[in-house]
Design goal:
It contains 14 helices and no strands. The protein is mainly alpha-helical and 261 residues long.
Length: 261
């Protein structure tokens, strides 16, 4: 496992190492893992140059944070309904909703384009945020967690006069912290690295997110590998921060939402 883990982390080590190298050292063979001189020029140029990387960074933070918060809350509400509220056709509706995971997202680009153009959010960050707040996987994950909570807890709350909203807010959400943290980390990573939706629905360069912004380092006849690696190194920092913040909940959340065969 250590050898496999080391093999998976080697590209990240090369990325960070390349961001401090001179252009001549990038393609040296054998690979020089530790640069002869640590060059901070590429990192400084990424943030202060004409590439606009700071703007792309803030756009990605806005999209990922808002989508993550919205998807976590809305998925929890929908999951509670599917798990705890009995209504006609509930299971059939959930299966239909779950079957949408089998539809490739690329198939929906044209309908989304027409819809966004009609409501006036095309070429705005809302074209990424609003669809991103709906997570089919999130509903499934949270529903599996709520199902595992003993029904006696909510039944006793009903006998004390509590309604669904109070049970959800005061009983279910505190118990669902591990599952919500797991969903938040997974959802944040999805939106932080989303390239296709940003490419299709954003045309204004000032609205670009990091995946699109990295294309600026690909010139007509060459690629600025040092600048690209410096930008990519900065791009993984929020991912590391979010993972470190919620890592203690991940294993607990996944194990609690596991499906028994």
């Amino acid at each position: 496992m250590f050898i496999l883990g080391l093999a998976m982390i080697m590209p990240f080590i090369w990325m960070i190492s390349t961001s401090f190298k001179s252009p001549a050292e990038v393609f040296e063979y054998p690979i020089r893992w530790i640069p002869s001189h640590f060059n901070m020029e590429h990192h400084i140029r990424v943030w202060t140059g004409s590439m606009g990387f700071a703007t792309y960074y803030m756009n990605s933070i806005k999209v990922a944070v808002v989508c993550t918060i919205g998807a976590t809350l809305l998925s929890s509400l929908a999951a509670y309904s599917f798990a705890r509220i009995t209504f006609k056709g509930r299971d059939t509706l959930f299966l239909i909703y779950l079957s949408m995971m089998m539809i490739p997202p690329q198939v929906l680009f044209v309908p989304k384009f027409i819809m966004f153009e009609w409501v006036g959010i095309y070429n705005t960050l809302w074209a990424l945020i609003l669809p991103g707040m709906i997570s089919i996987f999130g509903v499934f994950l949270m529903r599996q967690f709520f199902i595992r909570i003993p029904s006696e807890i909510s039944e006793s709350a009903f006998m004390d006069g509590a309604g669904h909203y109070r049970i959800f807010l005061q009983l279910m959400l505190p118990l669902a912290k591990p599952a919500m943290a797991t969903l938040a980390i997974i959802d944040f990573s999805w939106h932080w690295n989303d390239y296709e939706n940003a490419l299709v629905f954003l045309t204004d360069r000032k609205l670009y997110t990091i995946p699109l912004g990295l294309q600026n380092f690909i010139m007509e006849f060459n690629v600025d590998y040092n600048g690209m690696m410096a930008a990519a190194s900065a791009a993984i920092l929020p991912m590391i921060f979010v993972f470190m913040l919620g890592q203690k909940f991940i294993i607990q959340g996944i194990s609690n939402t596991a499906v028994k065969g």
